[in-house]
């Protein structure tokens, strides 16, 4: 960190910057194969991070000396390894999820999953899925949880025995005992799911006041009579790997627009680039989105890009590629401020329709309204995080804010034992009622013998008596 504060001490786990990025060829369009594969890749990265953490000599010294901390803040995304280290230091710890909530976080947060109305960050179905989307959501939720459990928790748990001892609790138990969980979203857009009080939204915490835009970029924006569209498909997937047919569709779309285009492009110069397009390897994204003449944002749907668009009140044309980008994009669509064009259907006519949809005045007004809702908080994201961190420090945790359901077996959460007991009691009562009713009916309905037969029997008895 440049110019760190006096009370800041940094331990670098890995000083090698080895981020080569991904290719557009890595994009998997089918959810059934994409979700398990991406979950497995994430857990593999988490395993590598766990080894890097636990092999650091300063971390090992920390385990031996057991220093005391008021609060420990740990990233919790694709591994619970660092949470185990925090628990070993016997201090209250806060988990920070840099993205939206993932399927394997639901149980530990006391969120009851139901594919009918609980959206998943890895799926594009939103809050109103149709039947077969619910079926896929139900299956993929359990598949993702199983892959994460085997690929991350079991693997890391076995590895951590070496450093934290044989009495190490299950990683899921450690994760569910976090004092708080910070999530990089906000209920104004990502809300509607019942969560415990210890789940705190801090979406937009990275955002700072906008700075002045470089002169040549600002002039390009100001001189656009019909407005500007900003295009950025992220930094993880390298732009120069975009297939030529997809690149042609983008250029064809931009050529048909009356607006100007600012396009973050990290490849070589693009041939036959329309005159209304400016490309650069880097743009000050948030500063550009805050400009009044920027009308739309073509994005991959990453969480930071989505939160910056929400903060600026700019509608989005989302082209999700990986992971939580699908769920983020679906949340923006549910809020009425985005349109989705899938990567496999990236055609100029579909992209043009999506752009015209978000340029509609109603969508523009809705984006401004949702932005006001996004900002309308008792405290901003940074103040919220500071308050709750100090809250945990003051009270040595927050034991009364977690969901009691995380410690309740699944059959009790679904009240299957209660329903079974009620069914058994009901069955016994109804069976007893049936038996009593049957006896009563038999007594009442028994036929009386004929009168002639009774008289004959009396005569016979009298003769015998005589």
UniProtKB/TrEMBL annotation:
EC number from the UniProt entry: 2.4.1.17
Reaction(s) catalysed (UniProt annotation): glucuronate acceptor + UDP-alpha-D-glucuronate = acceptor beta-D-glucuronoside + UDP + H(+)
Subcellular location: Membrane
Membrane topology term: Single-pass membrane protein
Enzyme class: transferase
Pfam family, one: UDPGT
TM ranges: 416-434
CDD domains in alphabetical order: GT1_Gtf-like
Keywords: Glycosyltransferase, Membrane, Transferase, Transmembrane, Transmembrane helix
GO MF, one example: glucuronosyltransferase activity
Gene Ontology cellular component annotations, sorted alphabetically: membrane
Family the entry assigns: Belongs to the UDP-glycosyltransferase family.
Protein name: UDP-glucuronosyltransferase
């Amino acid at each position: 960190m440049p110019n760190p504060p006096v009370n800041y001490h940094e331990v670098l786990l890995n000083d090698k910057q080895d981020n080569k990025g991904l290719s557009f060829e890595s994009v998997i369009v089918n959810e059934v194969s994409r979700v398990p594969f991406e979950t497995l890749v994430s857990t593999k990265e988490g395993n590598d991070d766990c080894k890097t953490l636990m092999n650091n000599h300063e971390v090992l010294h920390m385990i031996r000396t057991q220093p005391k901390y008021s609060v420990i803040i740990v990233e919790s995304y694709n591994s619970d390894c660092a949470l185990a280290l925090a628990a070993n230091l016997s201090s209250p710890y806060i988990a920070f999820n840099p993205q939206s909530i993932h399927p394997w976080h639901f149980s530990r947060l006391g969120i009851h999953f139901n594919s009918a109305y609980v959206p998943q960050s890895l799926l594009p179905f939103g809050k109103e899925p149709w039947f077969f989307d619910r079926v896929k959501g139900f299956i993929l939720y359990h598949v993702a949880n199983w892959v994460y459990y085997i690929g991350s928790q079991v693997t890391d748990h076995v590895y951590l025995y070496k450093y934290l001892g044989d009495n190490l609790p299950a990683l899921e138990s450690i994760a569910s005992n976090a004092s708080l969980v910070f999530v990089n979203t906000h209920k104004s857009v990502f809300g509607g799911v019942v969560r415990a009080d210890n789940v705190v939204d801090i979406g937009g915490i990275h955002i700072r006041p906008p700075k002045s835009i470089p002169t040549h970029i600002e002039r390009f924006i100001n001189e656009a009579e019909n407005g500007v569209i900003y295009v950025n498909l992220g930094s993880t997937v390298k732009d120069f790997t975009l297939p030529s047919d997809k690149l042609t569709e983008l250029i064809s779309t931009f050529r048909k627009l009356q607006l100007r285009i600012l396009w973050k492009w990290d490849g070589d110069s693009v041939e036959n680039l329309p005159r209304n397009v400016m490309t650069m390897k880097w743009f000050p994204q948030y500063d550009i989105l805050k400009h009044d003449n920027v009308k739309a944002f073509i994005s991959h749907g990453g969480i930071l890009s989505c939160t910056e668009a929400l903060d600026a009140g700019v509608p989005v044309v989302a082209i999700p590629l990986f992971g939580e980008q699908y769920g983020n994009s679906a949340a923006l669509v549910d809020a009425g401020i985005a349109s989705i064009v899938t990567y496999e259907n990236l055609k100029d006519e579909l992209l043009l329709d999506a752009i015209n949809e978000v340029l509609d005045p109603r969508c523009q007004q809705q984006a401004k309204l949702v932005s006001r809702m996004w900002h309308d908080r008792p405290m901003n994201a940074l103040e919220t995080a500071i308050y709750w961190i100090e809250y945990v420090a003051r009270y040595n945790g927050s034991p009364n804010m977690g969901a009691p359901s995380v410690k309740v077996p699944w059959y009790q959460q679904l009240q299957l034992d209660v329903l079974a007991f009620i069914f058994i009691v009901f069955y016994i009562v109804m069976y007893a009622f049936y038996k009593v009713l049957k006896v009563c009916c038999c007594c009442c309905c028994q036929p009386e013998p004929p009168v002639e037969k009774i008289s004959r029997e009396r005569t016979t008895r009298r003769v015998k008596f005589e």
